[in-house]
Amino acid sequence: MDTSKPINKTITVPDVLFSYLYVKEPYKPRNSDQKPSFCGHGVFARGSAAEQIVTAAIVEICKNAWGDAMVDAAVRQADGSTVVQKLPAWKAMLNSFKDDNRLPLKDGNKRKPIAEPYTNMLYISANNPSRPRVVVTENGVNVEIGPDHPHWPYSGARGNLVVDLWAQGCPAKPVKDPTWGSRINAQLAGAQLAAHGKRMGGGGRLANLDEFGLHAPDADAPPPGAPEEESLV
User: Fold this and answer.
1) What is the pLDDT of residues 62-109, one digit of tens each?
2) Where are the beta strands (DSSP E) in the chain?
3) Whose CA is closest to 221, among 42, 41, 49, 10?
4) Which of 219, 215, 223 is nearest to 141 (CA)?
5) Taking the model in full, what pTM does it have?
6) Which of 32, 84, 109, 159 maximizes the CB count within 10 A of its CB?
7) Whether CATH 2.60.120.10 fits 8-66+102-211
């Protein structure tokens, strides 16, 4: 396997509904040993440009991280049983990530309890120990803004997320602690408000300004397209 291929990728996830977006102050889990972190969900419809972009990036990372060598893999069937099949190693790993909820791309109908805005939707979940960069397009240029700006993003608004995806526990980058396992991780690098909405409860690396598209607040611009891939959820 060629370990020189990149096992990480930065993507812009367009036209999502922000939910559980904490980019002003970190989220502090209750009754948990987890450290506070900045985080957010980007909620979007099946078949959207957002799903296509996230899916294509995850597939690319898996291919680069685990390669095409054929392996015996237990494939879960619709009735819950498993069948052993020969699959490329990357596909076998991707299937296991899907089965064990180790992808940042999630099915809103599998949240407990199922509630709006997740019903019949997909979402990407990402976090960051450091505050992500927040920008707005002004006069055709992306500029970084602070929490007092009227276009500071919030849960219930729509916009774009810049997310860093990477493979954990692959041959090119094994984990220090085997209990961490393998998965695809997502770090929230930036957020950009595109349209205001009804406010909802909840609110690493900084994204570069040129990673965001030029998207004036409340502008009605179509999201970019992306190659079609098999659904991951």
Assistant:
1) 999 999 999 999 888 888 899 999 999 999 999 999 999 999 999 999
2) 8-27, 37-44, 70-76, 82-88, 105-107, 122-128, 133-138, 141-144, 158-168, 183-195
3) 49
4) 215
5) 0.86
6) 159
7) no
